Structures are given as C-alpha cells and as structure tokens.
Amino acid sequence: MEKKNPMPPIVSPSTVVPLERGKLPPQVIDFEEVVLGAMMIDKKGIDDVIDILHPDAFYEMKHQEIYRVIYDLFQESKPIDLLTVSNALRKNAKLDLVGGDFHLIRLTQKVASSAHIEYHARIILQKYIQRRLISISSDIIENAYDETADVFDLLDNAEAKLFEVTQGNLKKSSEGASDLVKQALTKIQEISNKEGMSGLATGFTKLDAITSGWQPSDLIIIAARPGMGKTAFVISMAKNMAIDFNHAVAVFSLEMSSVQLITRMISSETGLTSEKLRKGNLEPHEWEQLNVKVKRLSDAPIFIDDTPSLSIFDLRAKARRLVSQHNVRIIVIDYLQLMTAGNNNKGGGNREQEISMISRNLKALAKELEVPVIALSQLSRAVETRGGSKRPLLSDLRESGAIEQDADIVSFIFRPEYYGMTEWDDDDHTPCEGQGEFIIAKHRNGGLDNIRLKFTGHLAKFSDLEEGFSSEFQSSMNTDFAEDVFPDTRIEPKDAFGMGEDDVPF
Question: Which domains are seen in the chain, by residue range?
Fold first, then answer.
C-alpha cells in the first residue's frame, strides 16, 4: 500500500512571531565597540573610563577580554594602542577568541576620537546594572518559592545583593594569592605615604598610638559594669571623631533617646552640666556660650538612631543605608545586650545562642561594609563579688563567650572611684580621683595595655589625662602669679603647698 506524505501544517501569518520581538538581556554592543576603539586610539579616553567600567560590565565575552588586557596594561603603566593590545592578547592566547587583529582594527575604525566616551561608558554600566538586577530578581523569585526558606533570611540576602550592586563592588567567590598580595602591598604603600594613623583617630592619644586608630572591618567590644562610663566614653569619642576629624559616625542608642544623647554631647562640648541643661537655668553668658559652642556640634556628621529593641536584621539594613548615603565611617551600638535576633529566632529562645548570633552578625557587618563596628557590652556581677582590685576580666563578659571570640578588640572601662577607692592598685599608689582606665584585654592585631584617661563626671566626658592635668596645673599657677608676681617674703615649701609636717611633698 502506497504511503501518503503527510501535509505540512498550515501556519497563519498572524501566528508567526519574529525573533526581534523576543526578550534579550539589556545590552549596547555598539557602545561597547565605540568605547574600546576610543581607548585604543586616545589615552585620554582610558583615563576617563578606567574607574567607571570593569570587565564584567561588557556584554560580549570578547569585549570583556579586550578590556581586561587594556586594564592590565594601564595598571602596568604601559602604552595602550592597537599593537600593544594585539600583542598582549596574543601572549595570553586570547587573540583568536576576540576575533583576531581584524576585529581590533574594526574597533578603531568605528570611532574618530574619545569625545563623549565617559557618557558612553556610563550607558554600558547602566545596562550591566540592569542585567545584574534581572539576575538577582530571578534568584529572589526562585528562593521565595522555597517553602523551607526563612522569610527574614530571604529579605536579608536580597538587600545584601542589592547593596552590592549599589556600591559597585560585586563580591567574588575567591581571589588568587597574586592579586591579594598586590592589594596588600598597595595598602602598605598607601599607609607608608600617609601621615598619621592607618585607621580612624579617636582623639585619645595613647589609645590611637596602640591601635593606630580603629581599623576597618574590626569588631570592637567595650565592656563595663553599669555606671562606669561606657556611654560617656563613646560619646566623647564620637564627638572627637566627628568634630575634630570630620568622620561620619552612626550611633545606635538602644538605651537612651536621641535627644538625651545629644544633650550629653552638648554638655561635654560646652562645659555646662547636664543638670543645668535639663532645668534650663542658665545665666546670660552661659546662653551665649551655649549658642556659640553648639554650632560645631550641629555641623558635625553624627547620625543617631534610638530605635528600642533593635534587631540585628534592622541594624544591618540601616547601617548599609547610612554607609551608602552618608559615607558613615564608624558604627557604634549602645549596647549589645539590648539587641534582639528579630523574628528570625532559630536558637530556640536560648539567650546565649541569640547573643552569639548577634555578635557573629556584627563581625560580618563590619567586614561587609569595611567600617569598624563598636559594640558596648555589660559585664556580669562576678566583678562585684570578687575581692581585690575588681578589675574586669575576659571571663566577666555577660551571656556569651562568642563575644570574646568574634571581637578583634575586647576592652574594659574601669574607674576605682566607683567602688570607693582613692588610689590605683599600682606600686606608687597614685590617686585615682577623676580618672578612669581603658583596658585592652584582647587585641588580635596589636599589643595589650592599660590606658589612663581623665574622667569629668559632671560633664560625662573622657579626655587625655596628661592634657587635662597640664592645663589645670598651668591655670592654677597663672592665678597664683597674678596675685603676687614678685613675693617679698620667702616661704617654706610645706606652707606653700598646704602640707602638714608629716606629709611627703612628692
């Protein structure tokens, strides 16, 4: 029996869809060719776009390879033109991959000069960002369909990925040792050429000398018993950093309201007691003093968030925005034990596990944003029950040993006056009135030391000890001299210093 050939199906012209109507990833191939061509014919074109674009910004693989070679030649300060790019590609065995010399010649023929190259480069970058957003959105959609996924983890991951795109520094899975060594050497070179410290200065001379300033991506724990002056210390430090060094500071105050916190800063800056400021009982000259000195504080880049019971999830989201929008250089949290893990409580309600999770996330946040994160912490009551000097120890950190492990620096604030002591526990038994000690108990990248600071209680202010005492001594001496510059009568030292016969002058 003869088989009949089946008739091809009849397709209506209305059902034929041209390929052009399909969706393609955002791209501008022509602009990519123009930019690469301009970079090979004009050095100025390279200077204009080298900081804007990176190889992944190009859509076509061959354009990525060409740009990567141009970038490497630029880093090595070698001339960049058609011949050098061709030789570099040939050396890397990538010339055939990019289409040979013919394609390179075609790129240079597409453009006459590097005019408008920056504009073209920014359009290429915009298309790349669009492609990244599409990719991230696809991942978010896929993960959102996963019933086992925690919704707060999804939100956190989504925001982190979007933050990466905003910052323009997409994370790589790994980096080779050669690249990392180059980065380290570059950083060391920058530090050597830079005057002063490698980190952010605190305004406390001895502390800055030991730490070389607070270092980016470090987690610093400052712990003490209630009433020792933790908040006073970070207020003094934040004020120094913002006013004296113009570093933007973010303070997350979980204990005090933002108005209370700024009032304490005003008190420290103006020299007017918090009690006077609370009551408003100021003399006319004090009002004038307040209006003049508060101007520096009002212009300072200090950002205060007083959200109570702040979760680690909310903190990370807010910190990212502050760093992105206001170029915040340091983050302060007052204090750690008042934070919560949020709704994402996988620790089963165990507070120790919750604090461990918070401290891990704070360290991760410091690394992600590349800023120092300072977290205040409470100490356990073991300090109070212990005899002797009552100096805090690492074992006194409250609720979790993970704090000690995660932190790069663990420090304590200790004021013997708090326990009614009048002398330090050193060999000289020096007076401890109006003094406090900043104890560095753990320092991952440096030495340990005890730094004595001046503490002004009525102003809730810490300052350098030597500086404070020298100024006070000088002013009192000047007062004495003003009363009688050339005394006629010789007096005994014991009378001059108001000592008894049994007292030792020094």
Answer: 29-149 (1.10.860.10), 196-471 (3.40.50.300)
Give the pLDDT confidence score for residue 386 in this predicted structure: 72
Catalytic residue among 60, 159, 255, 417: 255
CB of 437 within 8 A of CB of 399? no
Three-state DSSP class for residue 23: coil
Round the average pLDDT of the chain to a whole number and report it. Answer: 77
For residue 184, the surrounding DSSP H or E stretch is: helix 177-193
Percent of the chain clearing pLDDT 70 (strictly above): 80
- Taking only the tens place, the pLDDT of each residue in 161-213 is 887 776 655 544 556 677 777 777 776 776 666 556 678 888 888 888 888 88
Report the 3 state secondary structure along 103-164: HHHHHHHCCCCCCCHHHHHHHHHHHHHHHHHHHHHHHHHHHHCCCCCCHHHHHHHHHHHHHH
Structure tokens at 379: 């100490």
Average pLDDT over residues 380-385: 75
The span from the CA of 375 to the CA of 371, in Å, is: 13
Instruction: For 256-302, write each residue's pLDDT tens digit.
Output: 888 888 888 888 777 777 777 777 777 777 787 777 778 888 888 88
pLDDT of residue 5: 60
Residue from 199, 220, 219, 218 nearest 208 by CA: 199
376 closest CA partner among 226, 208, 215, 204: 226
* Residue 397: both structure tokens together: 């950190």
Give the pLDDT score at 202. Answer: 83
- Per the CB < 8 A criterion, the answer to whether 252 and 315 are in contact is yes
Structure confidence at residue 493 as a pLDDT band (50, 70, 90): very low
Distance from C-alpha of 253 to C-alpha of 314, rounded to nearest angstrom: 13
What single letter denotes the amino acid at residue 231? T
Q: Helix, strand or coil for residue 414?
A: strand
Helix pair 258-270, 284-298: axis angle to 10 deg: 110
Count CA atoms within 13 Å of residue 151 on its CB side.
2
Cα–Cα distance, 285 to 110 (Å, whole number): 73
The separation between the first and the last C-alpha atoms of the chain, rounded to the nearest angstrom, is: 129
Is 255 in the active site? Answer: yes
